[in-house]
Amino acid sequence: MSKTRITVIPGDGIGPDIVASATRILDHIGCDFTYDYALAGLTALEKTGELIPQQTMDLIENNKIVLKGPLTTPVGKGFTSINVTLRKHFELYANVRPVQTFEGTKAHYSDIDIITVRENTEGMYSGQGQIIDDNRTIAEAKSVITRKGSERVIRYAYELARREGRKKVTALHKANILKTTSGLFLEVAREIAKEYPDIESSDMIVDAACMNLVMYPERFDVIVTTNLFGDITSDLCAGLVGGLGMAPGANIGEKVAVFEAVHGSAPDIAGKNIANPTSIVLASIQMLRHLAMHTQAEQILSALQKTIKQGDRVTQDLGGTGSTNEFTQAIIDHL
To answer: What is the pTM of this model?
Structure first.
């Protein structure tokens, strides 16, 4: 039986440090993956002159599974977001962002367990039709929502809820004002909800949802929404559990799946062995679940929970004095 090949993109800044942490844990638990390392981001630009070399795109196409560290897209200069490029090229239509409380963090809540499923390829966030006049006095952008795009991400959210034994799906929208785009998404959400009578369904205007997420987060289970709203609310949810360092992300398509740390590349601490690897470790757990390696996923999650609760070998942002390597070793010790 051939080994599963994983395309690994270490990324920029702290990316190589934290990705090495994740692969070290995966190797220790006996996942027996073959890693094909690939360049993207500023590191790729400096070495090849391209943000995403064709060789990287080919490896992603061939292997189908990607573990990715944070990437830096240069500001201005006509560069398109690397993440947006990957989502569009490989039709990674569902962005899945789970958050849960870990005992031992400085989070303000103790019982958070929410998954945000965000449409990943269309809507305002996709950047279509951006125009600004010569005098820079009027700027425009276009938001396009399709029935196909809405159906597939909403159905994905319900199937995810059913698969993981979740009780409720809440669709977020702004159909009271954006009557066409958000209106279509809401219409499709209510249609699909009828196909899943075993799951409680609700919908909520996005601004009210943000308020309720802060006041009553226990009322939410699975959230599904459009691209821009999902970008914002998933970060809000990360804040409920201690920040982006505690939140992973998966980008799921029909053929390719990319699992990533969702925080930035933090170039100011790159190479200093002090970065918190939790986000990419959680992303690797998402990857294992996607590959139906549930035993290994739960073992790593349990070891991570014990390490954070114990608290002495975690990184400074979690209140400890540990380095990235010491944090990683603590997880391995708990395995």
So the answer is: 0.94
